[in-house]
Amino acid sequence: MTLSKKHLYNDEEIVIDMHPHWWYLVPRGFSLVASMVLAGFLLFGHVGRYGTTGHFHYHWWGTGLRYGSALLVAVALVVFLGRLIQWNSISFVVTTERCIHRSGVFAKKGVEIPLDRINTVFFNQGVLERLVGAGDVGIESAGQNSRQEFADIYHPLRVQNVIYQQMEAYENRKNDKLGDAVGGSRSSVADELAKLESLRQAGTITEAEFEDQKAKLLS
Q1: Tens digits of pLDDT across the chain (219 residues)
Q2: How many CA atoms lie within 13 A of 45 on its CB side?
Q3: How far apart, in whole angstroms, are the C-alpha atoms of residue 191 and residue 86?
Q4: DSSP letter for each residue of 89-123
Q5: How far apart are CA 163 and CA 155, in angstroms?
Q6: Which of 24, 35, 72, 65 minimizes the C-alpha distance to 48?
Q7: Cβ pair 109, 103 in contact under 8 A
Q8: Whole-angstrom Cα distance, residue 48 to residue 60?
């Protein structure tokens, strides 16, 4: 789990919690494999000549290629490991109240989009991305920086549907709470009116005072 539960609100629950798709690592991984293949060819492809004793000797340029290929593999490995660390630092989370995206190894940055501010969710997939189940998800919301895009998401169409489902569920919960609050206030007003009527009939308050308090309650 990439998001700690201590960062959640009271009744908030995590619905989706993921790192980027492994497709995020493919370009750097391909570079690493290609450099290893090239280094293997240069190291074991006999770039040199055989001496009179039958022993193999590298030309000066062959020796340079050996060290150059080894350096190339080392650089490609470091770049791939850096990409892997970045992958581990990126998280995309959908909860019952918001969408969250965070990234950064040392310096952190992130964006949180409340579900009730989201207008549109869209996705984009290339041909290869469809084959591996990866793609990009975009969210348009109200306010500044209204469009946010998140790359290399697992099953973007499924994520789009989940976000819409959570938006609907969130709206339903808000309406239920509002209905309960309105119902409670109406019940309270009715009770207060009944008390005022009892006081009026008992002669505790005058007709004018009754009408005045009644107007205040109804307002």
Answers
A1: 677 777 788 888 999 999 999 999 999 999 999 999 888 877 766 554 444 444 445 554 566 777 888 899 999 999 999 999 999 999 999 999 999 999 988 888 989 999 989 999 999 999 999 999 999 999 998 876 688 999 999 999 999 999 999 999 988 888 777 655 555 555 577 777 777 777 777 777 777 777 877 777 776
A2: 12
A3: 61
A4: H-EEEEESSEEEEEE-SSS-EEEEEEGGGEEEEEE
A5: 13
A6: 65
A7: yes
A8: 9
Q: How many angstroms separate the Cα of 180 from the Cα of each of 1, 176, 186, 187, 194?
A: 35, 6, 10, 10, 21
- Both tokens of residue 100? 């969250």
Which amino acid is residue 88, in one-letter code?
N
The tokens of 173 are what? 């919960």
Q: For residue 76, give the amino acid letter.
A: A
Give the long-range contacts of residues 166-174, CB within 8 A, separation 24 or more: 166/15, 166/94, 166/95, 166/96, 166/115, 167/115, 167/116, 167/118, 169/96, 170/96, 170/97, 170/115, 170/116, 171/116, 174/116
Q: Are 150 and 101 in contact (CB under 8 A)?
A: yes
